[in-house]
Amino acid sequence: MNVVESEVKALEEIARASSLADLEEVRLRHLGRNGVINQLLSEIPELPRQEDRKTAGGLINSVKEKIENALEEKDRELKKKDLKEIDRSSFDITSPGISPHVGSIHPLTQFREFVRDTFSRLGFEEAYAPHLEEDEYNFGLLNIPPDHPSRDLWDTLYLEDGRAMRTHTSNMQVREMRRRKPPIRVMTFDRCFRYENVDPHHSHTFTQFEVLYVDKDVSMGQLRFLSDLFLKLVLGEKTKTRFRPKYYPFVEPGVGVDALCPFCEGKGCRVCGMEGWFEIAGAGLVHPQVLRNGGIDPKVYSGLAWGFGPDRMLMIKLGIEDIRYFYEGDLRFAKQF
Ligand SMILES: [Zn+2]
């Protein structure tokens, strides 16, 4: 095959190549180690005349260059075509990507932040007390001696050594009174535990919030103010509340705090169990004996305690039907808030 023929053939094949794989085959056939061009170059020494060898060498190299240029151009063309095809068919560059999973904050955690924020602006400082507690802090020092009938209010999870999983956040009270000097303003938002038959309204683990305020001349009026201020912030400005006498051994007097049912406005509906009111918080003035147990003279100081169950309040506020959702760790639940 002469040089001109091989040039024509190579350029034809390049023009015909319809894919990058085809093109690579053409390149190997002509420019590869055993390709046509090398074949031609190897024949040069056989030419008898020095002049002819020189001419042939130059000619073959210029053909080689033309083939290389044609290959390069075709390569660009084919790559462009490939992209266009991808664009047209399977791959839509305008379609949105796979969005990453975005977490959300558990409703109880969100609420805790709100409650902490609200009460810290009123001067309350956060306090913590153990979940696994000595009997005296959970009961005895709060005016609930071992044989006191009010212990029946709590079905308690005891350990063999006599300690208990705290049944309320009130185990914080005497601990904080002993650690501080009046005026005392502390709050706690944390878990409590009871031996409950688990159902949509009862869980062995639940949350309580409470504040303790000890100072000179602390009164029911302040308790009423604090209670209304907070419940209006949470449930809305129009929320109506009422105090009802209620017995807790560590306060005197003790009150149950009710909020008017926002769904029926007191007429009675399924949500409020036809009552028209929800019991939403418990409170009272700290019992003088509890103050004494905390090392505070009840003749000089008085105190108030006020608290509620955040689970229950959120269930009312957000329309959550089952308390167990809070503690199951199901992302489908948490993602809704
Ligand atoms: Zn109602």
Automatic annotation (TrEMBL):
<keyword id="KW-0547">Nucleotide-binding</keyword>
<keyword id="KW-0963">Cytoplasm</keyword>
<dbReference type="GO" id="GO:0000287">
    <property type="term" value="F:magnesium ion binding"/>
</dbReference>
<keyword id="KW-0460">Magnesium</keyword>
<dbReference type="InterPro" id="IPR002319">
    <property type="entry name" value="Phenylalanyl-tRNA_Synthase"/>
</dbReference>
<keyword id="KW-0067">ATP-binding</keyword>
<dbReference type="InterPro" id="IPR006195">
    <property type="entry name" value="aa-tRNA-synth_II"/>
</dbReference>
<dbReference type="InterPro" id="IPR010978">
    <property type="entry name" value="tRNA-bd_arm"/>
</dbReference>
<dbReference type="InterPro" id="IPR022911">
    <property type="entry name" value="Phe_tRNA_ligase_alpha1_bac"/>
</dbReference>
<dbReference type="Pfam" id="PF02912">
    <property type="entry name" value="Phe_tRNA-synt_N"/>
</dbReference>
<dbReference type="GO" id="GO:0006432">
    <property type="term" value="P:phenylalanyl-tRNA aminoacylation"/>
</dbReference>
<dbReference type="InterPro" id="IPR004188">
    <property type="entry name" value="Phe-tRNA_ligase_II_N"/>
</dbReference>
<dbReference type="GO" id="GO:0004826">
    <property type="term" value="F:phenylalanine-tRNA ligase activity"/>
</dbReference>
<dbReference type="Pfam" id="PF01409">
    <property type="entry name" value="tRNA-synt_2d"/>
</dbReference>
<comment type="similarity">
    <text>Belongs to the class-II aminoacyl-tRNA synthetase family. Phe-tRNA synthetase alpha subunit type 1 subfamily.</text>
</comment>
<keyword id="KW-0436">Ligase</keyword>
<dbReference type="GO" id="GO:0005524">
    <property type="term" value="F:ATP binding"/>
</dbReference>
<dbReference type="GO" id="GO:0005737">
    <property type="term" value="C:cytoplasm"/>
</dbReference>
<feature type="binding site">
    <location>
        <position position="252"/>
    </location>
    <ligand>
        <name>Mg(2+)</name>
    </ligand>
</feature>
<keyword id="KW-0030">Aminoacyl-tRNA synthetase</keyword>
<keyword id="KW-0648">Protein biosynthesis</keyword>
<protein>
    <recommendedName>
        <fullName>Phenylalanine--tRNA ligase alpha subunit</fullName>
        <ecNumber>6.1.1.20</ecNumber>
    </recommendedName>
</protein>
<dbReference type="InterPro" id="IPR045864">
    <property type="entry name" value="aa-tRNA-synth_II/BPL/LPL"/>
</dbReference>
<comment type="subunit">
    <text>Tetramer of two alpha and two beta subunits.</text>
</comment>
<dbReference type="GO" id="GO:0000049">
    <property type="term" value="F:tRNA binding"/>
</dbReference>
<feature type="domain" description="Aminoacyl-transfer RNA synthetases class-II family profile">
    <location>
        <begin position="109"/>
        <end position="328"/>
    </location>
</feature>
<keyword id="KW-0479">Metal-binding</keyword>
